[in-house]
Amino acid sequence: FRENQTTIGDIGINHRKVIRVNSSIDDGDHPGHEDFRHGTHLAGALICDLFSGIEGRGIAHSSQLIFQDVVNESGWSEPEMDWLLAEDLAYGAVIHSYSWGDVTEAYTSRSFLLDAWHREIPWSLAFIAPGNNPNKLYEPANARNIVSVGGTLKDNGTDLFTGSSYGPTEEGLRGNFIVTPAVGIVSAAADGNLSSFNNDMRSSTGTSSSTALGAGVTAIIQQMVQEGYFIQNGNFTPSGSQLRVLLAMSAQSLEGGEQGGEYVGAAPNTMQGWGRPSLDNIAQEDVWIHDSYQMNESQRLEMIVDWLDNNGSKPFESIEKKMWNGSGAQGPFLKNGESVEWNLTLKNNTDFRAFLSFDQRPFGQSSDDLNLVVTLPNGTQFETNDSLEGTEGLKIDIDELGGVEWVSVEVIARNVGIGNYTDLLGNDGDKVGFALAISGVEGIKIDLPLDNDELCCQNTIEDKDSLLDPNVTNDPAPVFEKGEWGGDKGEIYDKTNDEGKAWYLDSKLFWNYGVVCLVLILILVMGVAVTSYSLDKKKKKKEIDEQMSISKEKLEK
């Protein structure tokens, strides 16, 4: 974790590995403390990057870390979780890896707070260890909007770790969202001496380790979104919902395996969730994504600063008061009974898979229900129908598609609770955002015009762009360079004459030539874009594949 081979370095945004160490409760891993070496081992599994070789490298070894020490000589002394989450948010973290909790299956105030936080803060995703008791699934892994990570063996087989906890929860949730290796995970070993630079490793077993590995894999997925790896509209910081759908899509079912003699059925189920992540499943050129919370990065960061301006109150109380209607984000945000639809062109000779995810309200409040409906041109429909879970998916085999060239994908708000405020997001609002991940497609369907009349009148893109904020800017902007965004970059020059009247040419000849030129320009632009896109894809795929190769070596060891 240190800056170089001889010094720890100055902890901060420019440090090689560690952005912040919160030592307000304790100042490190000390012998005699409860769970001594636990946090260091998990941090290593997440981001460790040695100066030579790949032995001991974490899954997301190019990431940086915020380290929060919540154990002292008195034992576990964690604060209210919103303080930890707010610190992560302030320092730019989206993913939170928490391998701790209380030995109870009850939906606790901590479970409630996690769900409420994710509903208010879309750019958060907490990974929680469910425990090491197959008869119990402990809090706060029973929260609705988090990712509970069960354990597998590390032999690339289909068997689960015998001690891995799994659901269902007392509220009826599935429990585990994914599973990753939990047995004999080799990672960094603390010795209690901050200046020893011991370079030591140790092995550990349990869902604490599998949780760290799950968070690490998701960090790579976050990088893929931010670098524009998928079919999408620009590069952006993904919401927790966007990460969940891609994580679910990446997962491979471990059907046929065993856990302590019990058969593992088809995913998704209570034992394995959606299965074990494999980036091969999403590192393809046929994955289209949509995130309601996509927005300009500078604007997003400014809004977060405002949300965290708590004036002495608890972080979550401050954030709840900063009501947001979704302005500046891509949208759409659905109210009860509303829907939005896209027509997507299919890729030849491949199955079709679609996943939907959104943040649910905490248990005890009104429950929302969004469904995903896929309609073939002949009217055949496929629909998800799970009123309890916030992540749903469906698969349509090639044979079921019947050779069609496109499908309609619709998100329907079957039920969205009404809070005390209208036209607002969050726990007390009346609308909700979501994320999609769809594979087996080439993108939004666009029918090329056959003649001038069709060019004038045809409108085949049914993605309801009218729901989007016209002022959204999706171009990536440098972080902390907000001064450059003083002007209105969306302003269009008003081409009028001196009398304030717009120039207007009513000429059929001009129209015909204009149409021909427009078509030629479109063809040229599309050709250049496709070529550039293909080259950029190949470059990004090579970068991601290199990380995947290293990650696989880590998992196999």
Description:
The longest helix is centred in the last third of the chain and has 49 residues. This protein is of the alpha+beta class and 557 residues long. A five-stranded antiparallel β-sheet has the order 19-18-21-16-23, with no helix packed on it. Strands 5-6-7-8 form a four-stranded parallel β-sheet. The chain has a four-stranded antiparallel β-sheet with strand order 15-22-17-20. It is 25% helix and 18% strand. The chain is built from ten helices and 23 strands. It has two domains: 266 residues, Rossmann fold; 179 residues, Jelly Rolls (Sandwich), CATH 2.60.120. About 16% of the residues have low confidence. Helix 1 packs parallel to helix 4.
Outline of the structure:
The protein is an alpha+beta fold and 557 residues long. The protein has ten helices and 23 strands. 40% of the residues are buried.
What's the pLDDT, averaged over the residues? 81
User: What kind of assembly state do the chains in view correspond to?
Assistant: single chain
> Which parts are unreliable, with pLDDT below 50 for 5 consecutive residues or more?
448-535
Would you tell me the structural class of the helices and strands?
alpha+beta
For the largest beta sheet, what order do the strands appear in spatially?
Answer: 19-18-21-16-23
The CATH homology group name of the largest domain:
Peptidase S8/S53 domain
Tell me the domain tally.
Answer: 2
* Ends distance: 21 Å
Total beta strands: 23
By DSSP (H or I, 4+ residues per run), the number of helices equals 10
What characteristic shape results from the CA principal axes?
globular
Q: Briefly note the CATH topology name of the largest domain.
A: Rossmann fold
> What is the name of the CATH class of the largest domain?
Alpha Beta
As a whole number of angstroms, the C-alpha radius of gyration is 25 Å
> Mind telling me which CATH architecture of the largest domain this is?
3-Layer(aba) Sandwich
Described by strand count, sense and barrel closure, the largest sheet is: 5 strands, antiparallel
> What portion of residues belong to β-strands?
15-25%
Task: Tell me the helix content.
Answer: 25-40%
